[in-house]
User: What shape does this take?
Amino acid sequence: MGADLNARKLERNTLAVYPIIDIGYHRFVDVPRLSGAALRGGATIVQLRHKGEDFGLVAELVEKTRGWIAQAGIPLIINDRLDVALALGAQGVHLGQSDMAVKTARAAADHAGRGDLLLGVSVTTVAQAERAMADGADYLSVSPLFGTATKPDLDPPAGLEGLRRIRAALPTVPLVAIGGIRVGRVAEVIGAGADGVAFISAMDEHPEQGVRAIASAVRQTRASLNRKEQLE
Ligand code: TZP
Ligand code: MG
Assistant: This one.
């Protein structure tokens, strides 16, 4: 773990390419291989997500993957489970609106001597976004951005308009978007104010190429937005 990963100051760029390895969704896939492919494809942060109770399985997968992830110098985030993130020494945890309260998670992490733990929070509205930041979040995920078959129990999508509103309210907050994002939509998502995109099914066909295509779309969009800004 590099010292910069412990600083708890998340650079907005770190959210650029955010693949999520979902142990249930990817159950027929070799998870360590998938994380290797994600890293080679240009992931800037990785999340491990597991909706079941099998702590042993998650622990085993984190043990198998965290060495490479740390070597690549990028953070490993655990979905939902603060206890798992703390027990396994991950860099952060990602919480939804119905998970542990952000304030409680921050206090528990501090109490465990992990004042550096990154806290990501899913939001769909400006009010949720402002609250999460006030409570100690380090980054936000606009979730879901678009409709997606990958996670059926979702709130109505925020859409690009919702993302724009959250970015306008919180201009400097590290902000990623998730839900139904394929490579062809990356430009509009970054254009609407996201620092990066998070995704699961975009890795379906060929994980490494899927991640690489997204990484290159994020870079190209950034470059053309910068050029536009310079011309204005
Ligand atoms: N949270 C909001 S949408 C979503 C999660 C975990 C699913 C994202 O998967 P996909 O396949 O990229 O739409
Ligand atoms: Mg959750």
